[in-house]
Amino acid sequence: MEVDKKEEIASETSSEQVVNPWEVSAKDGGRIDYDKLIDQFGCQRLDESLIARVERLTSRKAHVFLRRGVFFAHRDFNEVLDAYEGGDKFYLYTGRGPSSEALHLGHLIPFMFTKYLQEAFKVPLVIQLTDDEKCMWKNLSVEESQRLARENAKDIIACGFDVTKTFIFSDFDYVGGAFYKNMVKVAKCVTLNKAMGIFGFSGEDHIGKLSFPPVQAVPSFPSSFPHLFPGMDMLRCLIPCAIDQDPYFRMTRDVAPRLGYSKPALIESTFFPALQAKNGKMSASDPNSAIYVTDTAKDIKNKINRYAFSGGQDSIEKHREIGANLEVDIPVKYLSFFLEDDAELEHIKKEYGEGRMLTGEVKKRLTEVLTEMVERHRMARAAVTDQMVDAFMAVRPLPNMFE
Amino acid sequence: MGFSKDQLLSQLQELEIDYSKYEHPPVLTVEEQAKYVSSSEGALSKNLFFKDKKHRYYIISAMVDTKVDMKVLSQRLGLGKGGIRMAPEEALAELLQVSLGCVTPFAVVNESARDVSLLLDQKFKNQTRCIFHPLSNNVSISLSTSGLDKFLQSVGRDPVYVDLEANPVVGKDQPPDLAVYVPFNSVVIPELPNNTPSAQASPPKNVSAEKTKPVASPKPSKSPGNVKSVVQNSGLSVFKNPEKFVEEILDKTSELLFSEVKGENVEALAETLRKRLTSEFTHLAVMYKNTAYSEGFYAGTQCQPKRP
User: Fold this and answer.
1) Residue B139 pLDDT more than 70?
2) Distance between CA atoms of A56 and A54, rounded to whole angstroms?
3) CB interface of A with B, residues 371-400, below 8 Å
4) What is the pLDDT of residues A165-195, one digit of tens each?
């Protein structure tokens, strides 16, 4: 059932697309081929019938990310739904590597979706901040990575998670006890060769990196959180994440049965494209490739107008004649992520694709949508105090987590 | 599977109920229907489908010019002001098994509608014939009230005619006069979102045609088929659950709106407010909850142990 076709990292040259937790780039400077990725990784497509099933089970409309195919692949999501229908709950697990203070919209996507899952299914959530990972990979000091973790936690909380159902933890704070015991159990099951194959480690990498993968694996097991799930060792776990994280969880799913644990299920998203549409994903290192949650309305307007790659034609006459190239147009792509109203999106695609609407108008609408989102986030962020972060990160039971 | 129009019509024939049939393109509003069926054939009806807070449903079938005041109706049913609102589309499909724009007294022929209360306009009795959809909105039939009564009795229903425009005082010594018509059982339907989100036309611009219903917002927090949890509806969960909290706020807002604002557009306005504000308010409610919890949590860390 587990089809691990290609565990080895594809070669570094641009002749193949590269997708792993530390690098994402498309083939020959083109776009990421998601069908190929699903095939290569061996996960399933999230189809219409699954989405309809989710709507039925949760008695509400599916999240816009599901409707638009942003979350497009999964592993065992069907099984999780089967169990849920039968009365067996699950918990959610997602995380962030706090490498920078500046969060952009691409970073928020898994959190926005996870929040919807928490509300719709009424299940608890654990959020891992991998400050140790960033300390090692980005060569940050321990203190700096811990600080960034707390800062990022504030933006995460601002997405609207319910404190009575959410546990946020940083690795530097939490690793130890039952969590560490599981880490060792996992580590015993993965040979050096296997780790090098999955993650591309080499003899030059320091041993910190080698020993990191179990840290990201064990939050999938409820016994790692004895204060949350005492006696619930068979509780299933669902992991919403971007598809580049798949290698960690392929390894985890491989190891789980050997430890007597359930395999975690996954629900995976595409990458949020960079403004300039260069292959790959938004990068925190190029400020103009992304809209940040700290951008002002003016910044957003500027960035969209100046840098958002347009699929419109060079001249108005040509545009009215042929229409826009919706495949490469970034504003329309962004709207498909964030514009709630299905009818309006269809209308825009039709008018723009047939040349009656101009790029300026599409960009204007996008600016409105993003500005509203960023503003709402900023307001929520301002309400997050250090006290609130402490509360979310406290090792405490969550008595009403399934209500 | 619900009764079809043909099954209904053959039933009427079997009962030897006299009716006239008019076929026309599908119509969603009374105005449209009036284009195809002239008033010389009979009195057109407007048909409204309501639900109350305890998930009990009502069909109100009235003459087009009868004023149906939801606030008054709600009080007369003993539900307080603002206790009823337009039923969501899902209920139309699940309980009445008819499509949008097709609410009709005949829908009670379906087993699924057995707990739906049917109230008919007294003024129908003054008409020789009245016009209703026979479960399909591309056909209209006209028949006399005695014909309608005969049909209703054949499916085990006592026809109830009510003066819909009456506005009796309801108070301590004057019990609500329509309370006896409140269904005994509440109905839980899995409240699903629209199945055709983008194909669904937005509510017709002519909102004053009460025949159509505004698209209702998807409702949160109801487990499918779990009757117990809905009927219990513990008051505590309103304060624990942000979504229930927001629903409570919007219910009270709608109530006030109904009591302060006159006019038939009020229901549509209330639904729009609900739809647009629910997500925004829920976000605020979650933040409020988190803030309160955090303050309590902090206080807990500073707590002095009890003196022995």
Assistant:
1) yes
2) 5
3) 376, 380, 383, 385, 387-388, 390-391, 394, 400
4) 999 999 999 999 999 999 999 999 999 999 9
B84 within domain boundaries = yes
| Mean pLDDT calculated for residue range B199-213 | 36
Q: A58, A66, A127, A157: which to substitute to probe chain B, counting the most B Cβ within 10 Å?
A: A58
Q: Which residues of A touch B283 (CB under 8 A)?
A: 160, 376, 380
Q: What is the largest CA-CA distance in chain A?
A: 69
Q: By residue range, what is the domain housing residue B282?
A: 204-302
Query: Is the residue at B268 inside a domain?
Result: yes
pLDDT at position A7? 34
Q: What is the pLDDT of residue A13?
A: 41
For residue B110, is it within any domain? yes
Looking at the fold, whether B79 and B173 belong to one and the same domain comes out as: yes
The answer, for A342 touching chain B at a CB cutoff of 8 Å, is: yes
Q: In the listed set B147, B181, B215, which residue is the last one of a domain according to the structure?
A: B181
Residue B78 and residue B120 in one domain: yes
- Which residue in chain B is spatially nearest to A64 when comparing CA positions? B197
> The whole model's pTM is what?
0.69
CA of A18 to nearest chain B CA: how many angstroms apart? 36
Mean pLDDT, rounded, for B78-101: 80
> Using CA atoms, how far apart are residues B112 and B116, in angstroms rounded to an integer?
9
Rounded Cα distance, A74 and A268, in Å: 6
One-letter identity of residue A185: K
B38 & B170 share domain? yes
The answer, yes or no, to whether ipTM is higher than 0.95 is no
3-state secondary structure of A114: helix
Are residue B164 and residue B284 in the same domain, yes or no? Answer: no
Task: Work out the pLDDT band at A15, boundaries 50, 70, 90.
Answer: low
Residue B166, domain CATH: 3.90.960.10
CA-based nearest distance B293→chain A, Å:
7
Give the Cβ contact number of residue B61 at 10 Å. 24
- Is B105 within a domain? yes
* CA distance linking residue B176 with residue A356, whole number of Å: 59
Query: Closest-CA residue in chain B for A382?
Result: B287
| Residue B30 and residue B176 in one domain | yes
Structure tokens at A301: 């307007």
